[in-house]
Structures are given as structure tokens and as C-alpha cells.
Design brief:
Layout (H helix, E strand, L loop, with lengths): L2 H32 L15 H29 L7 H22 L6 H17 L16 H34 L13 H34 L7 H21 L5 H25 L10
């Protein structure tokens, strides 16, 4: 199969993945709506939606596999790893994000988060296809280095897990507000306790923070080899460091200052916002040596 056919195959696989994620989102929406049954006390009947939930999870696995196949085909079409522009960053990031959720789902009861995960995957892939898409092409000379895979893949893995942690932190804040009000309703009662959400957020960030640190170090080594300097404080480097400081502050406050619950969740979201700003704004509209969006 020639490179053009592989590029078309990659596009079709990504489109197929997007379509299945849309079905997954719909199924999780139905599950959420119909888990609550009418009657005295509006009790929650999870058995009514268990089959829908299982089907949604199975289809999410299929969508993730199709997305992975699309990444492989994209890489083969250009004879390189698919990490050279914003379109490829986005579809790879979506794959990492969904994969992290599916792995966490095996150990924790996170199926309730499927609605958020499928929506985030839809938005990411939809944006990639409609606004960020560029034709498959060989690498520009500055990116022809083994450090591309090492540095960029570590950054994308970090971003996917950061996004999952921030989703859980956001859920914590919503539930905490509900509990301070009228208390959890029938649907919200199915979700984990606030302490469980707080602990899971912390564990995810503690897991991925060393990977993000390694990504920055690897980027500095690559910069010295490519440009003759380890650090130049261009916008991309500066915001990567700000993100590192923000998540380091979260871990420090969580471990040494005893910040838990609401304060820790807000700090997590602030740190996550610096990563998203770097990923979206700096990549597309920023200047400097890291302008590889392809747009």
C-alpha cells in the first residue's frame, strides 16, 4: 500500500473512531438519564442500565483501537512517528487519554466518568479533523531526531493523564458543591466518595509528574543538540516550566501542607489550565522555535 493510500486509510480510521465515540457518548447519556427510575424516593436502579454501560465501554475500547490503527497508518504513510504537528498531537493525545481511562477503569469504578471521557474525546478529535488537519508529510529537518519520539511522546502521555486527573478533580468540585447543598441525589449517589476522588486525582498526578519532568529534561537535551542551547525561554519552554511548577506546587501542598479536597482540586485545575494554554494557544499562535503546529 502506497503512502497516499495509507494516509486515506488513517483518515477513515480516525473518522470511524470519531463516529463510535459519538455512539459511546449517546449510550452514556442514556445510561445517566435512565438509571434513575420514577417512584417513591426516585431510587437509583443501576441494573436497568448495566447492559447499556457495558456496551458503551466495549464500544469505547473499539473506538480506541481504531484510533490507534489510524495513528499507525498515519505514521506509515509518512515513514515516521505521528508526532510532528498539532493534528497528530491531538489524535495521539486523545488515544492516550482514553487509554488511561480504560486502564484505570480496570481497578476503579470509573464508568460514571465515561460521559465526560467520551465527550472530551469527541471534542478533541472533532477539533483535530476540522481545524487542525494537515496532509501527511515527511518531517521538517529540525524534527529529524530520535528525541522526537522520546520528548514528544512523554509530553503527550503526561497531557493525557493530566486531563484525566483534571476531569476527576472537576467532578470532585461539582459533587462537593452538591453535598454542601441538598445532598447527593439518586444519580450522584452512585459516584465514589469525595475522599476516593481526591485520592485518585493525587495518585494520577504523582504517577505522571516524573514523566512530565523527564519530558522537559529530554526537550532541553534535544534543544542543545539542535540549537546549541539547553534552554531559551521561548513561549513553549516557558509555559512547560510553568506547568511543571504548578503541578509541583500541587504535590507539595498535598503532601507537606496537608491540602486536600476542595483546595487541592482547584490547584489541580489551575495547573491543568496552564498545560491546556500551552497546548492550544502557544502551539497555534505562539512564536519561537516550537512552532510546529503545521497550520
Amino acid at each position: 500500500m502506497d503512502s497516499r493510500a495509507l494516509a486515506y486509510l488513517s483518515n477513515n480510521l480516525v473518522y470511524s473512531s470519531l463516529a463510535i465515540f459519538a455512539i459511546v457518548f449517546l449510550l452514556h447519556a442514556i445510561e445517566t438519564a435512565f438509571a434513575v427510575k420514577s417512584g417513591e424516593g426516585r431510587n437509583l436502579d443501576r441494573q436497568r442500565t448495566e447492559k447499556i454501560a457495558r456496551n458503551a465501554t466495549g464500544l469505547m475500547v473499539l473506538a480506541d483501537l481504531l484510533l490507534f490503527a489510524g495513528l499507525v497508518a498515519r505514521g506509515l504513510s509518512a515513514s515516521r512517528f505521528p508526532l510532528a504537528n498539532m493534528y497528530e498531537f491531538s489524535i495521539t493525545g486523545a488515544f492516550i487519554f482514553v487509554t488511561a481511562y480504560l486502564i484505570a477503569l480496570r481497578k476503579h469504578d470509573l464508568r460514571w466518568l465515561g460521559l465526560v471521557v467520551s465527550l472530551a474525546a469527541l471534542l478533541t478529535l472533532g477539533t483535530a479533523i476540522t481545524l487542525l488537519y494537515v496532509e501527511s508529510a515527511p518531517l521538517v529537518p529540525a524534527l529529524k531526531s530520535p528525541w522526537l519520539l522520546i520528548h514528544v511522546l512523554a509530553a503527550i502521555i503526561s497531557g493525557g493523564i493530566f486531563l484525566l486527573a483534571n476531569s476527576i478533580a472537576g467532578a470532585y468540585l461539582i459533587l462537593e458543591k452538591i453535598e454542601r447543598g441538598k445532598g447527593r441525589g439518586p444519580w450522584a449517589s452512585r459516584l465514589p466518595s469525595l475522599d476516593t476522588l481526591d485520592q485518585l486525582t493525587y495518585r494520577l498526578i504523582a504517577l505522571v509528574f516524573p514523566i512530565w519532568t523527564f519530558s522537559i529534561i529530554a526537550g532541553a537535551i534535544w534543544a542543545e543538540a539542535a540549537w546549541g542551547r539547553y534552554w531559551g525561554w521561548d513561549p513553549k519552554e516557558t509555559w512547560a516550566f510553568i506547568t511543571w511548577v504548578a503541578y509541583a506546587a500541587y504535590l507539595h501542598a498535598r503532601v507537606t501542607a496537608g491540602w486536600k479536597g476542595k483546595k487541592a482540586a482547584w490547584l489541580c485545575l489551575i495547573a491543568g489550565s496552564t498545560f491546556l494554554f500551552n497546548y492550544v494557544y502557544v502551539n497555534i499562535w505562539g512564536t519561537g522555535k516550537h512552532t510546529y503546529s503545521g497550520l
